[in-house]
Design brief:
By secondary structure, the protein is α+β, with helices and mostly antiparallel strands. It is built from 4 helices and 13 strands. The protein is globular, with a radius of gyration of 25 Å.
Length: about 290
């Protein structure tokens, strides 16, 4: 190797070292800025225990939602239908259309943040098909998925479900925020149903399943544990139409659940076990 080549190689090594050094300095600066921003933001946003966290409704929309929009942008007809079936409709309520069992069937989800809690109301309508089997009635969900510009009033005169029975289930969790991430304490599940065609409902069971990773509270520190599953089950044999059934399973006071990412099981789910006309139908939706 010639002297000139050695000089060139040494020059390249020096330049590479400088680039790495500058890159590391740049990363350090970025990290310092992020840490400063985190400290400032957390100090400003973390609420006291008795106050509502700053969590936009959009952050709790289902990750499988095919469509979602603020309820205030819908015509009054569809909102009246949801209200008449037990949904709380406010100015910032989010209405979602989400798939059932990863199929073409759809459920309607009404999402509200009420003080320091998130409530997810799921509506599934069922109808008897030509083979006398109970199947999901997608009529209202399909209209919702068209968006607020679709002529909903004309499509459903009067706008209403025409299924044989409707199950309305609600999952409730307390909300917490460290200024960046949202954490949960899932604790309540309830359901009721409307029997519109005299079907035989012998049992309904609904499970609210929240799967994620445990963090400390307060402090929001990762406890570095395996995935944790929290389940709230409400089960009723021979339920009475129009009667609400509920159950609670409270979360540990010094823990919160982070459900943003992880395995396919990480998230919030409602699973329905409907025993109708002597048959068992199982449905799962991702909240």
């Amino acid at each position: 190797m010639s002297c000139g080549q050695k000089v060139d190689d040494m020059y390249r090594e020096v330049k590479n070292f400088e680039r790495r050094k500058n890159y590391e300095k740049m990363i350090s600066i970025i990290m310092m800025i992020c840490m400063l921003a985190a400290t400032t933001t957390v100090g400003a946003i973390i609420p006291p225990e008795d106050a509502a966290p700053v969590v936009p409704v959009e952050t709790v929309v289902s990750k499988t939602a095919e469509f979602y929009i603020e309820a205030s942008k819908f015509p009054s007809g569809i909102l009246n239908v949801l209200s008449e079936n037990g949904a709380s409709i406010e100015e910032d309520t989010i209405v979602e259309v989400i798939p059932i069992n990863d199929s073409e069937d759809k459920a309607i989800c009404v999402t509200n943040i009420v003080e320091d809690e998130v409530e997810k109301d799921i509506f599934i309508s069922y109808v008897e098909d030509e083979n006398n089997n109970m199947v999901v009635d997608n009529s209202v969900a399909n209209v919702l998925a068209q968006g607020p510009d679709y002529d909903m009033e004309a499509s459903f005169p009067p706008l209403s479900w025409n299924g044989d029975y409707i199950v309305h289930a609600t999952a409730t969790a307390a909300l917490y925020s460290d200024g960046f991430w949202t954490y949960y304490k899932p604790y309540k599940c309830s359901f009721y149903y409307e029997n519109l065609a005299g079907v035989s409902v012998s049992r309904i069971q609904v499970q609210y399943i929240a799967d994620g990773f445990l963090y400390s509270y307060p402090g929001f520190e990762d406890l570095d544990l395996d995935e944790y599953e929290h389940v709230v089950t409400v089960n009723k044999t021979n339920p009475v139409a129009g009667t609400t059934y509920s159950n609670t399973n409270y979360f540990a006071s010094n823990r919160v659940l982070w459900t943003t990412s992880g395995s396919p099981m990480v998230g919030h789910f409602l699973t329905f076990y409907n025993y109708v006309n002597g048959e068992l139908d199982t449905y799962t939706v991702t909240l």
